[in-house]
Amino acid sequence: MAKIVLEAQLKGDMRNDVARSEGLVPSVCYGPEKENVVVVVKHNEFLKAYRQAGENAVIDLTIDGKTENVLVQDMQLHPLTGFVEHVDFKFVDMNKLVVAPIPLEFVGKSPAVIDMGGILNKTMTEVEVEALPANLPHHIEVDISKLDDFNAVLHVSDLSVPENVEIVTEMELTIATVTAPRAEEEPEDLLSPEELERQALEAAVGVEEGEEGAEGAEGKESSEGKSEDSE
C-alpha cells in the first residue's frame, strides 16, 4: 500500500470553534514515551486519508515539517452535520507490536442463504489483532460459503491471517450463522359456501326461536295477570 500522508499544524491558542469555522479539525497526538501534541488538520484532507487508512493503517503525519507515524485512535462527529469535530492520533513505533481493530469483509455466498432461504446473521464486524504497524491488514476476509446449513457456525478461529499477524480476540466467539426462515403462518381453514349458508340458517333459526320464546313468555305472563285480576 502506498504511503498515506497527512499534514498538520500546531494548534497554538486557536479556539476550537474558530478552527472548525475555517475547515480545520482540532486533534491531539499521544503515545508511549511521547509528549502530547495538539494540532489541527484540514477537514477534507483528513477524510481523504481516513478513507484509505481507517483505524488500522499507518499515516505519515507531518507536523510543522517533522513526520510522525500515527494511527487514528478515535474521532468525534457532529451529530447533525457529520462534520469531523475532533481526532485522536496515536504515535506508533514501527518496530514495536501494536493492537488494532481490523474490519471483517464478508465474501462468498452461503448455500444456506442462497439455496435454503436462510437469513445471514453477522455477530461481529471487526476483530483485534497484534502486529507490527506496517503489517496490519486493511481487512480480514470471512468466507461465508462455509455456512452450508443452519447448524454451521463461523468462529474467530476460522479466520485466516498472515503469519506475522496474531488475532487477540477470543477464538471461540461467533462471527456469523444462518438461521432458518420463519415458517409461514398456516391460513385459517376456509369454510365452503354450503357451510357458511348452514351456519347462517342455524343462527337465524336460533334468533327466531329466541324471539318466539320471549313472545310466549310475555303472553303467558299477560294471561296469568288477567286471571289474577278476574279473581
Task: Give a quick set of tags describing it.
single chain, 231 residues, alpha+beta, 4-stranded mixed beta sheet, 4 helices, 13 strands
The order of strands across the largest sheet is 1-3-2-6-5-4
Task: Give the DSSP E fraction (strand runs of 2 or more residues).
Answer: 35-45%
Helix content: 25-40%
| Number of helices in the DSSP assignment | 4
SSE arrangement, N to C? EHEEHEEEEHEEEEEEH
Structure description:
This protein is α+β, with helices and mostly antiparallel strands. It is 26% helix and 36% strand. It is built from four helices and 13 strands. 19% of the residues are buried.
Short description:
It contains four helices and 13 strands. By secondary structure, the chain is α+β, with helices and mostly antiparallel strands.
Helix-strand blueprint:
Layout: E1 4-10, H1 16-21, E2 24-31, E3 34-42, H2 43-53, E4 59-63, E5 66-77, E6 84-91, E7 98-107, H3 111-114, E8 119-122, E9 126-131, E10 140-143, E11 153-155, E12 166-167, E13 174-179, H4 193-230
Parallel strand pairs: 1-4, 2-6, 7-10
Antiparallel strand pairs: 1-3, 2-3, 4-5, 5-6, 7-9, 8-13, 9-12, 11-13
